[in-house]
Every structure is written in structure tokens, then in C-alpha cells.
Amino acid sequence: MDSASQSQVADPTNIAWEQRKRRLLPYAYLSPTLILLAALTVVPIATVFLYSLVDNVIVNPNPPVFVGLENYEEVLTHRKFRGALSNTMYFSLVSVAAHFVIGLSFALLLNSRLLGANVKAVFRVIYILPWVFTASIIAILWRLLMNPHGVINFVLLELGLVEELQEFLSDRRLALNAVTFINIWSGYPFYLVSFLAGLQGIPDDLYEAGRVDGGNAWQLFLNITLPQLKPIIISLALLDFIWTIHQFTLIWMTTGGGPMRSTEVLSTYTYKAAFSSHEYSIASTIAMVILVMCTFVAVFYVRSQRMVDE
Amino acid sequence: MKKLVGLLIIALLLVPGVSMAQDVVLEFQQWWEPELPEGSFRAILDDFEAANPGIRVETISGPYLTTKDQIIASAATGTMADVVGLDGAWVNVLWKQGALHSLSQAMEDAMYDDSELAAQIQLAGETYMIPIANFIYPVFVNLDMLAAAGIDPPSTRAEFSAAAVALTDPDNNVYGWAQPLSLEQPNGIQNDTMSWVWASGGSMLDDMGQPNLVDNELLASTMAYIKSLHDAGVVAPGAFAMKENEKVEEFVNERVAMIINTLAHFTLIRERNPDLNFDITALPAAEGYDGPRGLPYASWGIGISSNTEHKAEAWKLIDYLTSVEGNTKLTSIANAFPGNVNATPDFIQTDPLFITAFEIFQEGFLANEFTGLPAAEELMRQFDEPFQFYLEGEMELEEFLEIAQEEWEDIFS
After folding, report:
1. Residue B282 near chain A (CB below 8 Å)
2. How far is CA A54 from the centre of its chain?
3. Of the spans A297-306, B66-75, B96-105, which averages the highest pLDDT?
4. How many domains does chain B contain in total?
5. Whose C-alpha in A67, A69, A155, A282 is 20 to 30 A from the C-alpha of A104?
6. Largest CA-CA distance found in chain B, in angstroms, rounded
7. Which domain holds residue B254?
8. Is there a contact between A165 and B381 if contact means CB atoms under 8 Å apart?
């Protein structure tokens, strides 16, 4: 080694630089992801959070005034917010429960050995159809079907099941159940597909062992099928709950939150605050509340995923 | 020689560039172009460019709702197009942001005589929007159904009620009237509800332009009248979720005999049901009222961005579109009533229904008190919600109006 090389190697500045470079290198590798995360997630969330702490933004030419948690107090104590929250919970929980029951039932039917391959293929296509349509198409379709002069009323009247026209989407007593029904119809195929994949992954040996032990069909379902599907059930239910809380198009295009606020959910309430009242700070506050709710659910989701991994 | 030719070529190449550089390019954002016959709007702008060398107009066109969202968003970021198509419902929010240039100022700078303008939308005493094409909302009546019932088109509320009752036949799914009250599109409050008040010379605002829903005798009696129609079962079912297009469909399919509707739907109705025998009439007035009837209307308005560097050129475009020549061309292709009092669209001379409409237009006055109000759509929605409770019998008239007044005062403040 010549003297020049020795001095270069021994130079403390170079050593420090090399060490710093080594420390920074992992961050450089991570930087594309971090930049994307910051641009697409952190900055928008931080902006919305800041908006929620001021009096009004975007449409106010004056500089916004910091109001602390006043917007949160206003939103959380407002009767319309509480009504929207209650409707959201009903809409989401009933949807998730029904998705689970219908999705699992159809998956069990399609997984049956009693049906031929061709019959199964046909029914798979039929059952999955609702998932193919976009929310706006589903809304238009069901508005027509549920119209007072629509097909459903015609059938109900012809069968003598009702005595007068039913205003499914414009009657306060029926509207929330009607939009929940539409959401159930449009969402169950996701469960069906996931459960079908899960059912096909359960080893036959388990069922054979169960039968040898004298288990009947119900016991096999309770003690083998459900426990085997448990990771899928938890993941689906949590994800579906988050997605359903966000459901906007379907409700907006069928009822707009009416009649008489009976189908007002948090997403339609937020939309009205932002794009109809132009109260972007209030809309941001509601958005933050929804974010906190979804974060709680997301934490459960991550934990359940960890348990699966372990 | 070669050098000379080269220089000549360079000079020739630069000429268009220099010419382009001198041109002022106006961005004009609106939702009108897609709603007009293809190429017809561009032709009007070409005429403007030919009459105003050095100004080019680039259109930014899209559907109504997209245009609304883009204009409000661009106003917030200070990037609004130089000239914008406006709906009266958005003017207030844009004005609050300081996004609109005062057209009063533009007219003063150009020494413009505004006596030919049919209307100007003013805020704080200054004009910010000029309606250049107006679509009025008369009552459309199915003449065959009326003839079968032996009834003439109604002129008063009592006649309208009697006609609606006579025309209603629930066993055959036929009803006298349709009132869309969807909360998604709450414009039924403007067109199909408050229009009854304006038709009888009433108002929903006080002299200071503030909400006046409580202790407003005419307004209260109008709401009670509408409830009486619902209670009598003459209103098509599904009103609380019905939208404007569905109301028109009910009329086209002859399930509803009378609707309050925009003239803009003439062509649509004729296309959907060529055999439909219908006419139009002015909105019925309260008994004893013989003054001019307020006509609900929607407008294509126009305004200038406060950020534009070409205010004078932008005004020239507005001047052209509101001139007798430009306004006649535009309203002729749009089937609209003119924003210039001296403009005469072609259809007024050729189509008997439009002749009737023009007579209604001339005998009455344009009335849309929601134009220019803050968050106009939200005002309609806040009125719609308790109104539905009232129509359902779950709220008293006074309570409904007090709640609506309170909600409106919140928005106004």
C-alpha cells in the first residue's frame, strides 16, 4: 500500500463520510416509498387535520383563524351528525352480517359435491354478477326496480303480498332498509369468492376424521369449517366494515340521504358539508372523525393479520 | 443570395409566431357547449374572433356538475379561467372568495350601456353575473288527459286542485301532479315549490334580502296548499326520492298530467313521446291575485375571473354574447329566452309552443330568489328536510317554517 492510499484510508473525514453514507443508504433505498407515502397519505391527512382546526378554508379569502377543537365540539354535538352516525352503524353492521351469511351460504352451496362442474360454473357467474356492476349502475338499476311503478311493486301487488304501492326509497320507514338491502346485494359476491377459495383449501382429511368421530354435518361445519375460515372471516368483516362506512355513491344516487334524513350516513353528510354548504373545515372535521373510527378497525385488522402470520 | 433566402424563410417562419404572440387567448369555461348541437357554439365564438382580431377564445367544456366543481376548485387556487359560465347558485360562493371581477366596473371601463340587459345578478350593489340565456319553468299540461276530463288548463290554485283531483286515477297509476323532492337534487324546492309563491307575487326574503319564512302569510298558505294536494293523493308517489328527470319521465309516459318544467325539455319530451299532446300555461296564482306572475327560471350566466390579465378582452366577449346579434344566435340554438331584451331567437317565430311560452314570459317576470344566495343548493336542502316532515304530517306548519328559517339564518350568517 503506497503512502497516498494509506493517508486516504486513514483520513478521519473519509471514515466519517463512509459511516454516514452507510447509515443513510437504507433510507435512500426507502426514499421512493417514503416520498410516495408522504405525498399520497401523510400530506393529505395532515392538511385535512389542519383544516379541521381552523374556522373555514378554501372558499374564505381571509386567512383562516385557529379555533382549536371547536369544530369537533360542533360536529360531535350536532343532532344531524349523531343521526348520520347511527344510520352509518346500522347500515354497516347489517351489511357486514348479511354479507357474511349470504356469502358463506352461497359458497357452501357452490362447494357442494352434489352439484356438477357445469352447474357450479353457471351459478358462479350468476352469483358474482352484482359485483361486476359499478355503484352508479347498481343505484340506477335499483331505483328503477324499487320505483312505485317498478317491477318489485308489480310483483308484490300481483302476488297479493301488499295492498298498496310501496315507496321503498321515499318512505322514511323503508328507505334505510332498502338502501342496506341494495348494498348487501352488491357486496356479497366478494365474500362468496373469498369463502369459496377458503373452503377449497380445507383438507378433506379433517372432515373424514370428523365423520369417523361421529360428527354430523352441523357439527362438522361448527368445528371444522368455521374455525378453518376464521382468519378469512375476520379479515373480510373488518375490511368490509371499513368499505361500508365509506359507501357514498350508492346512497347518494338512490336517496341523497333522504327522505327526512332517514338514510343520511357520514359520507353523505360530509359531502353536503363540503360541496353544498362549502364548509370545508366542518367537512374536514367529520372526515377526521371517520378516520379515527376506521383506524380503530384497522388496528384490529392488523392484529388479526399478525395472529394469522404467527 | 442564399443568405437572403435563408433570412426570408426565417422571417416567414416567425410571422405566425409573432402573430400568435400578439393574440390574447381567453380561456372560457362553461357547460353549454356539450348541451348545444355539435360545432354550433364554436361557430358563435368564431364569429366573435372574426369581429375582434387579436382575441382567441379557447373553450373548456364539460358537464354541468364537473364544470361547477372545477370552477369552485380553480377559484380557490386562483387559477380560474378568464371567462366562466355561471349558475346563479354558485355566484355567492365565488364572490365571497373574491374570484369574480365586478362587471359593473367592466361596463364602466368600456362605457357600456346596460339598458338592453334583461337582468344582472348583483351582490353588494355590483354586478357579478349576467344571465345570457334563460330557461323558464311554466306548467306543462297533457291536453288529451285534460280533454278527457273536460277540463281547461288551470289558471288559479283552486282550478289546479280541481284538475289534479279529476285527473288522478290511482288504479291506473295516473296522477294529477308530480313534485320531485329528492335531497340529492333539491332543486324541486326552487322549481316546484317556491315557484308557487313567486307566481302569486310573494317572496321568501324580506326587504333586506334576509330569510323571511316565518310570519310570511303567502308562503305559509302556499305550503299548506301543496300539503293539501299531497293529502288529497293527487301527487305521484315517490315524491321524496324523485328527481327532475323522473318527473319528466312520468309526464312523458302519461302517468302524470301536469308538471312544472323547463322549456329546455321541449325537444326531449317530443323525442321521447312524439304522440304526446301537450301545452304550456303560466303557473297558477292564488285566488284574488291578478298581478304579474313570477316565473321560475334557470340561467346560463357569464362572469369574469378577478385573476384574469385580460379583463378588457374578456368584457368584449361578454359584450358580444349579450349583444343583439350574439345573443340571438346563442339563444336560438339553445332554445332559451334571451338575456338581451331586443334579441329575438328564431324559434319564437316558428314554434307555436314557444310563441305561447314567449307570451307567458312577456306577461310575467323572471323570479328565482335563490340566484345569488349563499349556498343556494344547501338552502333548498335545508328547506326540503322539514318540508318532508310537514308533508308526512309529522310536523306542524309553524314548526317546519321555524326550523327552515333557523337553518337559513345559519347559512346567511
Report:
1. no
2. 29
3. B96-105
4. 2
5. A155
6. 95
7. 139-295+374-412
8. no
Mutation target to probe the A interface, by most A beta carbons within 10 A, among B67, B182, B253, B409 is B182
Q: Are residues B111 and B147 in the same domain?
A: no
Whether B385 and A172 lie within 8 Å, measured CB to CB: no
Give CATH superfamily name and number for A73-304: MetI-like (1.10.3720.10)
Taken as a whole, chain B contains a residue count of 413
Same domain for B86 and B179, yes or no, is no
Asked, for residue B369, whether it belongs to a domain, the answer is no
- pLDDT tens digits, A22-37: 899 999 999 999 999 9
Q: What is the CATH number of the domain that holds B75?
A: 3.40.190.10
Are A231 and A217 within 8 A, CB to CB? no
Q: Could you report the predicted ipTM of this complex, rounded to two decimals?
A: 0.77
Same domain, B186 and B119: no
Torsion of the alpha carbons at A149, A154, A160 and A163, rounded to the nearest 10: 0
CA angle B296, B300, B304 (to 5 degrees): 130
Which grid cell sits at B38? Answer: 355539435
Chain B hits for A255, CB-CB cut-off 8 Å, are: 182-184, 241
B381 domain residue, yes or no = yes
B339 and B378 fall within a common domain: no
> Can you list the residues of chain A whose pLDDT is less than 70?
1-10, 308-310
Q: Decide: helix, strand or coil at residue B302.
A: strand
Examine the domain organization and report whether B125 and B66 are in the same domain: yes
Backbone angles phi, psi at B366, to 5 degrees: -70, 125
The answer to whether residue B392 neighbours chain A at the CB level (below 8 Å) is yes
- Chain B residue with the nearest C-alpha to that of A57: B76
Burial (CB < 10 A; 0-12, 13-18, 19+), residue A36, is exposed
Residues A217-236: tens digit of each pLDDT:
999 999 999 999 998 999 89
Kindly tell me the burial class for residue A44, based on how many C-beta atoms sit within 10 Å of its own C-beta (0-12, 13-18, 19 or more).
exposed
